[in-house]
Design brief:
- The protein is about 55% helix and about 0% strand.
- It contains 44 helices and two strands.
- It has a two-stranded antiparallel ribbon.
- It is elongated and about 125 Å long.
Length: about 1000
């Protein structure tokens, strides 16, 4: 199989794709394109199983039943078969029935066996039908029932499967998954036949009597999970978070997922801490923050979570959230590799280029010289396997397999005595767990296990891949970096077989006396190096106790790296007793010797109150020491403390200085923070150009929030040339990652045609996505579009509901529109008092239309107590904003001297402003002021102009005033007045025409006639 296809599968599996994990697991059981490794297969299948993948549950059950790659455990096998069977997996139903029939892993129960055989037979399983026939031979006739002849009308038959004698055969990938291209290309019309070494079949069950069968009782697991989570069960909280991510609880919801995952993480569940770190890493459900990601990774890593250790190593390697530090990266990769993580081993090998630690090597070789070489285990040749390629299986061998050879059916053999069950500590449950330790495959194929009586296994029916974490938006790492870590499977280096180095193997640490004697003679650096080798099993047998003793010896002899490492061992309880207080002591010792990693870690302990009382001042002191040694993560963290005034004086200038230093070292979180400082002028001169540069730098490293803010600057042309097309592209990229603000602006671009073709349906779709995440702007726009039928069915009632949500969140325009609906009874009962409340809320936030209407309410006593003094206040605010009605009414107050001192000149000013907006009543009153000389010099010509103009629109009082004033004018004045009226009339017509054109255009946009 092409290595590129394998790598594609591995990448998908690392990203949490359950189907890819299943495919890889199956390939490892076959050794096709990858080394034969049942242990690694079980590991991948376990991950897919935790995501509910039925095929993986079935295949992992078979591994437990046969004891391949895992300790044989019939009870676990039955449990896994049951999970798959309850999802309608025909083969699992058959195997579960078989287990009930012979009592393997479960109490023998012919009733239950018949139930599950029937379910399989209803899906067309011929073996199940035969099993029912055999089972009913020993049953009373009264208890027998018709045997299903095929799939029932209520059962969806699975895809055609290929029968074969053993479960461990090529796994078919889902045919329903169009992307990426299948890793294994099927050959058309290839014969479907597979022949494997024969296995003994189980003897037929002895006659049993049974009562009426019944389906196994099932509870609602989701309801139980929610109830347990609400009671504070950390595992259930984590499970619930994963369920929200995978869409098991409805539509995927990252924010709700993070809420539950955080609760579990705060209780110390390492898998949840790792998951929360990954959410911060990717900016899903939370604002992207590499520093926070690193902190959560660190907490999980210190508890021994291999996935977190790997991601933490990655962050140190490329400098995400922490300064680049090859030594730290190697140290964390070693910790993950020490737990058998294949990707960590590969990354470690790639990073160190296979280089050996010369100082530790000397000690290892010296001690090992007296050790007897371990005997190699005998190689057992496996039975030959012949197979032909199936047409429906996406697995392509390099050459076609020979035709199958008929296999004679062996004689039945009695079932072997089961071995005592292996007690395994329960896992922390659900989708994201550290990869289990496993042994890498030996060069020779694994010998075939002794045959055991078991049912006939068949090819698992493919299932569609489950929704997984972090597949919508991949962040782009810097060019020199490896692919960025992802949420569920943090590693990014494909699992590779690890070849043991050609060197003398050190003895096990039971030979303590000779080893410690040599170690005592070594210097502290050599002691520490040897301790590291024992910690990860690098050239020596892995031995945590030996590692702990050697590292402690080096630490007591003053080696700062050993002191830092010992502190972490004490935190984890690995090789030494777990002791948080002791770990703080060693962190202090290493930090005092200027070990930057220890200084930074100790600072985080003080900041978070982990193992020590929370002490921001203490955190600031240690961050300062690490920052002074150019530690970018410490510089960023110290800047945050100054920005918040925690443990130090609140100082935006100093905060910006530290952000600048950290950003110049490539710390992405600092680049983002510095961009916001330049954007808002916090601690540094406001500079949109530099803000854009910072956001661009962080966006290039995949920082989601920086991409969004860069789009904002591009759309507005702040600091950069306005570019709505690029802004739309960035909005869309971030929106696809679930960012509510970006979803709103994507909709905005579609609604107003900015950077994308105008499309109201598309706009309302994006608005709804953001509105469902409680984005007030999106709720308001969705309400507006719904009110006018813009891209959705018009509904005043639905519009009011969206306005209400946005208004309750403080959205000023939504408050104004909601007040308008209440004022007019649109989509709700007319309610002036409630309308006045929302007009006031909107008016206080500067919505001028709401100010004008509230002024009228106060003026007339509508919905509120009449208060013309209050009315004048609101009239003035809206009049100054250009609301013509408010200008006209304010002029009347000044002309009449009502509430305010009489002031004709002030009245003329407001009448003139309203008249310029074609407000007819103000034009009439302005004519009256000119006629009477109120606030202006008496001028019959100007009075005639305004009377004549307003009269042309049918204003009766204006016509009467025009006819009255003309008697007082000379012929020249009449001619001049008419000339002025005609000119004014043209201007008014233009304004009215423009208004009609705008109204017509609005009607066209809204689809009105």
């Amino acid at each position: 199989m092409a290595s590129a296809n394998i790598k594609s599968l591995q990448l998908k599996a690392q990203q949490g794709d359950a189907h890819a994990q299943y495919q890889l697991g199956h390939l490892y059981t076959r050794g096709e394109g990858v080394p034969l490794d049942y242990s690694l297969a079980a590991d991948y299948l376990e991950k897919a199983t935790r995501r509910g993948h039925a095929d993986a549950q079935f295949l992992l059950g078979a591994l437990y039943q046969q004891g391949k790659g895992v300790a044989a455990d019939y009870e676990k096998a039955v449990g896994l078969y049951r999970k798959a069977a309850e999802q309608g997996h025909t083969l699992a139903q058959f195997n579960l029935a078989y287990c009930y029939e012979i009592g393997e892993g479960v109490e023998k129960n012919a009733d239950e066996a018949l139930v599950w055989y029937r379910k399989a037979a209803e899906s067309g399983d011929e073996d199940a039908r035969q099993a029912i026939i055999e089972l009913q031979k020993v049953m009373p006739k009264s208890a027998q029932a018709p045997i299903p002849s095929g799939p029932s009308p209520f059962t969806q038959p699975p895809p055609t499967d290929t029968r074969f004698d053993a479960v461990l055969s090529t796994a078919p990938p889902s045919a329903a998954q169009p992307e990426p291209a299948p890793i294994i290309e099927p050959e058309p019309a290839a014969p479907i036949s597979i022949s494997l070494p024969p296995q003994e079949t189980a003897p037929l069950p002895s006659p049993v009597s049974f009562a009426t069968t019944s389906s196994p009782a099932t509870d609602d697991p989701q309801a139980k999970m929610v109830a347990d989570a609400e009671r504070g069960d950390a595992n259930a909280q984590f499970d619930l978070g994963i369920a929200y991510v995978n869409g098991i609880m409805g539509q995927p919801n990252y924010e709700t997922a993070v809420k539950w995952i955080r609760r579990a993480a705060e209780q110390g569940l390492p898998e949840a801490q790792f998951a929360l770190g990954a959410h911060y890493h990717r900016g899903e459900g939370v604002s992207q923050d590499y520093t926070q990601a690193v902190e959560w990774y660190r907490q999980a890593a210190l508890q021994g979570n291999a996935a977190a250790q790997f991601n933490l190593g990655y962050c140190f390697e490329i400098g995400e959230g922490v300064p680049k530090n090859r030594d730290e990266a190697v140290a964390w990769y070693r910790r993950a590799a020490a737990q058998g993580d294949p990707e960590a081993k590969a990354a470690l090998q790639d990073l160190t280029k296979g280089e050996a630690d010369s100082e530790a090597e000397t000690i290892v070789t010296t001690v090992a010289q007296s050790a007897p070489a371990p005997e190699a285990p005998p190689v057992i040749e496996p039975a030959p396997v012949e197979e032909a390629k199936p047409a429906e299986v996406e697995a392509v061998a390099e050459a076609p397999a020979p035709a199958p050879t008929p296999v004679p059916e062996p004689e039945p053999a009695p079932a072997p005595e089961p071995e005592p069950p292996v007690i395994v500590p329960p896992a922390a449950s659900t989708a994201i767990l550290p990869r289990a330790a496993f042994a890498m495959p030996a060069p020779a194929p694994e010998p075939a296990p002794a045959p055991i009586p078991q049912p006939i296994y068949t090819t698992p029916a493919p299932t569609a891949p489950a929704t997984t974490f972090l597949t919508q938006q991949q962040f782009t790492p810097p060019p020199q970096a490896m692919p960025a870590p992802v949420f569920t499977e943090p590693s990014f280096v494909p699992p590779q077989p690890v070849t043991a180095p050609e060197q003398v193997v050190a003895p096990a640490f039971e030979e303590t006396e000779s080893l410690m004697g040599v170690a005592q003679q070594a210097n502290p650096y050599e002691q520490f190096a040897l301790g590291q080798k024992y910690l990860i099993g690098d050239g020596v047998p892995q031995d945590f106790v030996a590692a702990g003793m050697l590292i402690q010896l080096a630490a007591e002899n003053g080696n700062p790296e050993a002191q830092f490492s010992l502190a972490e061992l004490c935190t984890r309880g690995q090789g030494v007793p777990q002791n948080y207080a002791e770990s703080i002591v060693w962190y202090h010792k290493a930090a005092e010797q200027d070990n930057v990693g220890a200084q930074f870690t100790l600072a985080t302990k003080y900041e978070l109150g982990e193992g020590v009382p929370q002490d921001y001042a203490g955190a600031a002191r240690w961050y300062q020491r690490a920052a002074d040694r150019n530690n970018a993560a410490a510089q960023y963290a110290l800047g945050c403390l100054y920005q918040k005034g925690q443990g130090v004086v609140h100082d935006q200038v100093t905060a910006a200085r530290w952000f600048l230093q950290s950003a110049n070292q490539g710390n992405v979180s600092a680049q983002h923070k510095l961009g916001t400082c330049y954007q808002h002028g916090h601690g540094i001169a406001q500079d949109y150009s530099k803000s854009a540069q910072c956001f661009h730098a962080a966006a290039d490293q995949g920082h989601i929030e920086s991409k969004f803010l860069l789009a904002q600057l591009l759309r507005q042309g702040l600091g950069v040339e306005r570019d709505v097309a690029t802004a739309y592209t960035l909005y869309r990229t971030v929106a696809d990652n679930g960012h509510a603000g970006a979803q709103f602006f994507t909709g905005y671009c579609f609604e107003f045609g900015e950077g994308a073709a105008q499309d109201f349906t598309e706009a309302t779709g994006w608005y709804r996505l953001a509105a469902d995440q409680n984005e007030p702007n999106a709720q308001f726009r969705l309400g507006y579009c719904t009110e006018f039928g813009r891209g959705v069915l018009q509904s005043h009632q639905a519009a009011v509901a969206w306005y209400q949500k946005a208004a309750d969140a403080g959205h000023a325009e939504a408050q104004g529109r909601l007040g308008r609906c209440l004022d007019r009874g649109l989509g709700t009962l007319q309610d002036f008092a409630e309308a006045a409340k929302y007009f006031r809320m909107a008016g206080q936030q500067g919505i001028h239309e709401a100010q004008a209407r509230l002024a009228q309410y106060c003026d007339l006593g509508l919905g509120v107590a009449q208060d013309q003094q209050e009315a004048v206040k609101w009239y003035r605010l809206s009049a100054e904003a250009g609301i013509a009605d408010s200008q006209a009414r304010l002029g009347q107050f000044f002309e009449a001297g009502q509430v305010v001192p009489q002031d004709y000149a002030e009245a003329v000013k407001w009448y003139s402003r309203a008249a310029e907006q074609a407000h007819l009543d103000s034009q009439f009153r302005l004519g009256s002021c000119h006629e009477l000389g109120r606030g202006v010099a008496q001028d019959y010509v100007e009075a005639y102009k305004w009377y004549n103009l307003v009269g042309a629109f049918g204003h009766q009082r204006a016509i009467e005033a025009r006819d009255k004033v003309i008697r007082l004018m000379s012929p020249w004045q009449i001619t001049e007045g008419q000339k002025r009226a005609s000119e004014a009339y043209k201007l008014v017509r233009q304004k009215l025409a423009a208004g009609k054109e705008a109204a017509d255009k609005l009607k066209e946009v809204l689809g009105k006639k």
